[in-house]
């Protein structure tokens, strides 16, 4: 039996709620589909009311359920922790768990790269202690307290991803996490529907610094037009700051990033010392975030040599730049390369993904076309506000875009890019990904390298699935998750 994460006594102390029985929980769950026996089930109300699933959770072996009322169909002696407000109680569990842990806590935010950087830190810190971090992108008003509530008291490190959609969201979550170190990956055009400008986004991202414990450190991107906003926030709060990037002011300076087929080799200068490390996927943006992650590890007092070595253990999560080989014919050994980046998109991440595709080398002489091609399948970038049409059309001006043979566009917003492309690069334009997916076989050939990129809501993952189904036992490359 694993060590208990929550006892009913601790949960009552944290929330002030009333328990109907004594219980011990080994985990915390908000979803009966992934609940494990021994979990405390949290009956959150979102699209569905979690109270409707309490009976099912208990049948599946939940240790208890956190509720605001006794649900129908639940036995009179069922183990329940009854509170006035379930979400507020989850926040109280998170705060209590943060207070009792010995872990050094890291908070990560940014317009792009939060989840991949969180996973880089898991890889780095995992070689120097036990690490707690969410398995998914749990970075919102319920995701952060849930991650904290799941944190073992004896963890050495915790990495908390903090996101936002609207002003005023980050600071309260950061105060709840009370990090020793925070990192801002970048500030870019994302969620512009809720913000008037990039500067407004920068101020919101900078508010993660408000949650730092006294003496804490902020790791900040040195290469941004809004970097002065970030550094001014650190100075105003009395936090120490370290910069990473290519700017002269960066103490963690990226000297050179060499993109290979399945890796990026990075030469950097970290506070005056030369550092050489490898990231196991191509991408300059990954190299920069890895450099920032090494700065975080330094601020936590980790061994820098181990950190630089262990960053090589990181692989990008599925849908965030993973690269794989789709085997078309095992006898003739023909295949194409798929870059799956279908989880998220804004102008900055779109540019980074296109750079990866442009740097990739197709294979000639193996397909029916003869010449291997770079192909992009691009879905809408969402939540960009009133300038979304111009931002989509601007992709046509991306440096080096001429190296891409064909660009297929998915979604009403991407119609602006399709119209702005030279005729020879114009592929298909469709309203929805569901229209394009059935034609996957006509889009690619052996030897091609295909990038699929778009916001999750554009559902270009349907095209990714269709491309994968073309394979006869697809073989992941070294750069896949």
Polypeptide structure, described:
With 481 residues, the chain is α/β, with parallel strands linked by helices. It has three domains: 6-84, Udp-n-acetylmuramoylalanyl-d-glutamate--2,6- Diaminopimelate Ligase, Chain: A, domain 1 (3-Layer(aba) Sandwich); 101-313, Mur-like, catalytic domain (UDP-N-acetylmuramoyl-L-alanine:D-glutamate ligase, 3-Layer(aba) Sandwich); 322-476, Mur ligase, C-terminal domain (Protein-Tyrosine Phosphatase, Chain A). Helices cover 29% and strands 23% of the residues. The chain is built from 16 helices and 23 strands. The chain has helices spanning 8-15, 54-59, 86-100, 114-125, 143-149, 170-177, 198-206, 227-237, 284-299, 304-310, 347-359, 388-393, 415-420, 433-436, 440-443, 461-469, and strands at 6-7, 18-19, 24-25, 27-29, 39-42, 64-67, 80-82, 104-109, 131-133, 157-161, 181-184, 217-221, 240-245, 252-259, 264-270, 273-279, 322-329, 334-341, 374-379, 406-410, 426-430, 449-453, 475-476. The strands form four sheets. The chain has a nine-stranded mixed β-sheet with strand order 9-10-8-11-12-13-14-15-16, sandwiched between helices. It has a seven-stranded mixed β-sheet with strand order 21-20-19-22-18-17-23, sandwiched between helices. It has a five-stranded mixed β-sheet with strand order 2-7-6-5-4. β20, α13 and β21 form a beta-alpha-beta unit. α4 (114-125) packs across α9 and α7 packs parallel to α8. The chain starts with 5 loop residues before the first strand and ends in a 5-residue tail after the last strand. Mean pLDDT is 92; it is low at 473-481. Its EC number is 6.3.2.10. Belongs to the MurCDEF family. MurF subfamily.
């Amino acid at each position: 039996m694993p060590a208990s994460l929550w006892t009913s006594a601790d949960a009552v102390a944290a929330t002030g709620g009333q328990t109907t029985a004594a219980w011990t929980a080994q985990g915390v769950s908000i979803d009966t589909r992934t609940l494990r026996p021994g979990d405390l089930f949290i009956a959150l109300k979102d699209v569905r009311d979690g109270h409707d699933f309490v009976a099912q959770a208990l049948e599946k072996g939940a240790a208890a359920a956190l509720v605001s009322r006794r649900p129908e169909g639940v036995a009179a002696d069922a183990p329940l922790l009854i509170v006035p407000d379930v979400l507020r109680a989850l926040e109280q569990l998170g705060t209590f768990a943060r207070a009792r842990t010995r872990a050094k806590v890291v908070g990560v935010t940014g317009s792009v790269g939060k989840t991949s950087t969180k996973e880089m830190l898991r890889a780095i810190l995992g070689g120097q202690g036990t690490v707690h971090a969410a398995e998914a992108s749990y970075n919102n008003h319920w995701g952060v307290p849930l991650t904290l509530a799941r944190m073992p008291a004896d963890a050495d490190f915790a990495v908390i991803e903090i996101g936002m959609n609207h002003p005023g969201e980050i600071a309260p979550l950061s105060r709840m996490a009370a990090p020793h170190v925070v990192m801002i990956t970048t500030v870019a055009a994302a969620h512009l529907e809720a913000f008037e400008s990039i500067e407004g986004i920068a101020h919101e991202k900078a508010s993660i610094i408000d949650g730092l414990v006294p003496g804490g450190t902020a790791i900040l991107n040195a290469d941004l037009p809004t970097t002065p906003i970030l550094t001014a926030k650190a100075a105003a709060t009395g936090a120490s700051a370290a910069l990473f990037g290519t700017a002269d002011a960066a103490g963690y300076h990226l000297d050179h990033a060499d993109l290979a087929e399945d890796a990026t080799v990075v030469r950097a200068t970290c506070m005056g010392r030369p550092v050489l490390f490898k990231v196991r996927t191509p991408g300059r943006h990954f190299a920069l975030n890895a450099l920032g992650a090494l700065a975080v590890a330094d601020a936590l007092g980790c061994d820098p040599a181990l950190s630089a070595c262990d960053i090589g253990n990181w692989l990008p999560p599925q849908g965030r730049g993973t690269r794989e080989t789709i085997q078309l014919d095992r006898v003739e050994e023909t295949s194409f390369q798929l870059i799956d980046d279908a989880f998220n998109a804004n102008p900055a991440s779109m540019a980074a993904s296109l750079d990866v595709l442009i740097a990739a080398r197709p294979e000639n002489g193996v397909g029916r076309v003869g010449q291997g091609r770079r192909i992009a399948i691009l879905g809408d970038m969402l939540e960009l506000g009133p300038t979304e049409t111009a931002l989509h059309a601007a992709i046509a001006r991306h440096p080096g875009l001429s190296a891409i043979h064909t660009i297929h566009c998915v979604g009403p917003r991407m119609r602006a890019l399709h119209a702005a492309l030279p005729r020879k690069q114009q592929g298909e334009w469709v309203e929805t990904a569901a229209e394009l997916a059935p034609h996957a076989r006509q889009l690619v050939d052996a030897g091609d390298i295909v990038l699929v990129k778009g916001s999750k809501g554009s559902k270009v993952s349907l095209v990714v699935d269709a491309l994968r189904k073309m394979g006869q036992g697809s073989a992941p490359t070294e750069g896949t998750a």
